């Protein structure tokens, strides 16, 4: 719920432990409870602090999405108590590059990233798999830092506006509930 007079800070967490986050913007919400961010930029998270009608301090930390993708969540944690995270800032416009990255997965592991054009959440491996039925799948092999990336270029012409694509990865991980850690599901929509 929008909060008037709330302090808003947009920042990207620093990957280096002990180093400060990169702050992009700090401002105050107006009477409507909203504020505008200068752009374009690639933000990480937005911290919003304010007072609710009853005087209680309200605070939330929603991720800020850029590009054609949003995260639907539903990751399943593995090694180190982390959920593997899929992310993309690609635009899905004809002629552009599609780049999807995976982080926080088990290091030096294998798995699969599945793509679907519909979201049919199914309970599997102790979590939720959104990418069913699978239209295409891609082999995942994480590096020593637990990262992997997928690139496809150029994005094809002729895909109708509003077409949806769902991506979710799973990686072999003995620390996961059933030995398979799941990433969040990414929903991409063509403009």
Based on CA atoms alone, the radius of gyration comes out at 18 Å
Strand content: 35-45%
The biggest beta sheet is recorded as: 6 strands, antiparallel
- Classified by CATH, the class of the largest domain is Mainly Beta
Poorly predicted residue ranges = 38-45
Between the first and last Cα atoms, what is the distance in angstroms? 27 Å
Mean pLDDT: 81
CATH 4th-level superfamily of the largest domain: Immunoglobulins
Q: Which architecture of the largest domain does the CATH hierarchy give at level 2?
A: Sandwich
CATH topology of the largest domain: Immunoglobulin-like
Secondary-structure element order, as H and E? EEEEEEEEEEEEEEE
Into which percent range does the helicity of residues fall? under 10%
Number of helices: 0
Describe the 3D structure.
The chain has no helices and 15 strands. The protein is mainly β. The protein has two domains: 7-60, no CATH class; 69-189, Sandwich (Immunoglobulin-like), CATH 2.60.40. The strands form four sheets. Strands 5, 8, 11, 13, 14 and 15 form a six-stranded antiparallel sheet that branches. Strands 2-1-3-4 form a four-stranded antiparallel sheet, with no helix packed on it. The radius of gyration is 18 Å and the shape is globular. The model is unreliable at 38-45 (pLDDT under 50).
